[in-house]
């Protein structure tokens, strides 16, 4: 029966493959001509996107089939394909289309009109097997497509995350398709597919909302290594309108140049900096007072009240530089009016003087040639405007404005604050004298904790000149990456439990609509802040305006290993239960005690053995920070990482070195929880004694 099914699906795959090639050819022909107007340009952009999507969809083009209780048959795949006949049902349903949803969510209890779900396994353009799941029978364990899922989970790891569109589970699918109108915070234990969900959600949102594709989506991850690990998922799903970054790399042109202590990371992550920096930047504004400007050899005094009024209206709701531009424009206007008025007064005085002279000589005060009371020489409106333009273009006036209201470099402005204890005490009175001393003692290069402060200052100062936007055309992600002030359609944060309050502010600035998906595990938090609940972690940034969701099943770590995590989680102060492991690897975790002197040798031997056992897969080593360097020297061909660095990654086998040493690190129990849960198959522990 299966042979027939394979044959049947092969026929369908051949049909879909041919149609894909045909559509790609048609699109290529359409894309060969140039756009003549903006409308055509945007149409071509969409076609180009579609073309790329089709080209990339060669692997796993068709992976599912839905048989309706009414006898209907629909196939689900990586992209949607239409037949020639536009009115007919699509040949292939895109996995993100609403009609494909039952593939991920239908169960025997909630059949959604289906009689059967079929998973189709393929290699390239060959169907290698099918898994049928009747939905009209008795209720099953609740896993969707269990056979296909367990086969996928048991596969060797390549070192890069792959797409899982064929085996997404219902609780994951619910989050992927959730509304994107406000912040959604997803709590999930290790291996529950948080990263999978976050990335597939990006693909879903870009497919569903054109606006997000136009504005790009930002994906924030904890480290460059992690970004590299997930880097192939979205391109494989055909998505390019995505910028991936860490909080450290979000500011164009600014690099983190040094490590910082946990104490300073904690101090600099506090929400108090936002109002402190606002107060500081406000203090940089010029004070109101009369202004004395020179124009055409004459001095003009602008009264303090006029300056105060112009200043107040310029500053309202604007950044420092934007307010400066608005004020300068007003000043040009005021000065032009003052020049015109002074000229008028002068003319009047001249006229009065002339009449005096005439009176003294006993002449009547009738108008005389060129000196009538209609005061010839008073500037017309156009002339005042022209004068204002000349004032606006005048380098001398620009110098005057610069001296009175200087443009500022955000980096310099922040350095001036962080290096000055008196200023810090004035603007951040919540900091203790010891904390201020610790901040001011830091070297001038930037650390990770400085980046959100710098971003806040850059935002409060604003751009010096408007119109720095890059020219239109080219991929949207490139524009977004280059501009600090880019507003994204959506932001996805992975390992969100690590974000400090100030890093959250940095996210909000990039997404004022608050269309944000944050996934993480509060129990894996290792950052310097002390949050142990999501409510605490996001209180300063989001208040209580966010929606919570949860993932409860662990797909990565086998049951044998998850069983070890309960006590570790309890020591980490967690109130959560570890997620339920979906599978067992049949391999008991092992533990070897060695002397400290034997440790490096034993580690090398264990790595050698694990690599042999997991040939074609991956092995990773996690150790306390203090031992990493020494181990890297002896363990070649495998990553040797701290628990923090291992966050989000996975290997077939993990060698955990000195678990007690990891537990003794700051937030070490959380770190140990991370380290224990990185393997998909086997966990070995080397415990030094003495
Ligand atoms: N529905 C699924 N089908 C197939 N594989 C899945 C599915 N969900 C998760 N996985 C796999 O489980 C592993 C863990 O997923 P992921 O890295 O997204 O979990 P996580 O919750 O982010 O974990 P952690 O918090 O430990 O980093 C990955 O190998 C992923 O491909």
Automatic annotation (TrEMBL):
Hydrolase among keywords: yes
The protein, known as: AAA family ATPase
Listed InterPro entries: DNA_helicase_UvrD/REP, P-loop_NTPase, UvrD-like_ATP-bd
Gene3D superfamilies in alphabetical order: P-loop containing nucleotide triphosphate hydrolases (3.40.50.300)
Domain UvrD-like helicase ATP-binding: 167-558
Keywords per UniProt: ATP-binding, Helicase, Hydrolase, Nucleotide-binding
Binding of ATP, residues: 188-195
